[in-house]
Amino acid sequence: MPSFDSQTTEVRMPLRFMFKTIVKVEIGPESIPFWVHKEIICSQSPFFHVAFNGSFKEAIDQAIKLPEDSPEVFEYFMQWLYTGSLAHEAVDSDKPAFHILIRLYILADKLSIPQLKIDLVSKFIDTAEQKNCVPNADDTHIVYEELRESSPMRLLVLDLFMYKKTEKLIETDEDSWHERFLRDLIVKLKKEKTKDQDTDKVKVLPPWKLDRCRYHEHYDGQTCKQEVNTENDSMSITSSPLDPIPDRIPPSDMPGMKTKAHKVLGI
C-alpha cells in the first residue's frame, strides 16, 4: 500500500511498484529509442501519465514518438530521472554550457515536469555562483525565442545579468545579444536605479539568495521545499526526483496539461 506523507499530502509509491512496466519513447527525426520504466516517468510527468494511460494509441502500444526533441537532451533527462543528478561535463567545466541546462528546462516545461525545472533552477544558480559566470549571447536567443514568455527562467537570466558584473561581457562579446533581452535588461536596470534613489542604498542581496521560489512553478496546493539560512543568506532545496505528482490532483486536470498533451499526441 502506498505511504502517505502528512506534511506534503502526497502519496508515495513503494519502490517495488516503480519498476514493473517498460515503455518506449522514440526521440528525434531518426526515432532514437529510449526504454524507461512507465511508473517512474509517469510519476514525474503528467504528460506521460496522459500518454501511457487510458485509451490513446500510445497507451495501447506503450510507446510514444517525440520527433521534434533532441536525443541528447532526453538522455540528460533520463540521467536525472534515474539518479537525481544533473552533473554534466560541459556544464561543470570552467566555462559552463548554460545552453544545455536551458534546453533541458525547455523539455521539462513541454513535458510538465515541475521538479526537474526546480532542480535546474538550483543547478543554474549554483553554477553561476561557483563559476562566477552568466549565459552568453547565443543563450539569450534560446531563452527569448524558445522559452514561453512567462517562463521564470527568463526572470532568472535577467536577474543574473542585473546583479553580476556583466558590463564588459555585454560590451565585448562578438556575438549578438537578443534585442528583447537587452530591452528587458535596460528596463530592469532603470527600475532598480529608481529604487536606489528612493532608499538609503543599503546593500541589496541578489534575489536568488533571498527566495529561489520566485523562479519556481508548482502545482496548485504544493508548497516549496526550500530552507533559508538567514545567517549566511544561503538557500537549499530539498527534493527527490522520485517524489510523485500529488495524488489528489488528477494529471489531466492540471492547468495547461490537457492542452499540451493533446497537442503533441494529436488528439
Portion in beta strands:
5-15%
- Taking all residues together, what is the mean pLDDT? 78
Fraction of helical residues: 40-55%
Give a quick account of the main beta sheet: strands, pairing sense, barrel closure. Answer: 3 strands, mixed
The backbone outline, from C-alpha atoms, is elongated
Explain this structure.
By secondary structure, the protein is mainly alpha-helical. It is built from 12 helices and 7 strands. The strands form 3 sheets. The chain has a 3-stranded mixed beta sheet. The protein has a two-stranded antiparallel sheet with strand order 1-2. β1 (3-5) and β2 form a beta hairpin. α4 (71-83) packs across α5. The radius of gyration is 20 Å and the shape is elongated.
Structural topology:
Layout: E1 3-5, E2 10-12, E3 22-27, E4 32-37, H1 38-44, H2 46-52, H3 57-61, E5 63-66, H4 71-83, H5 98-110, H6 114-131, H7 137-146, H8 152-163, H9 167-172, H10 179-197, H11 207-210, E6 226-229, E7 234-237, H12 257-265
Please tag this protein with its features.
single chain, about 270 residues, mainly alpha, 3-stranded mixed beta sheet, 12 helices, disordered C terminus
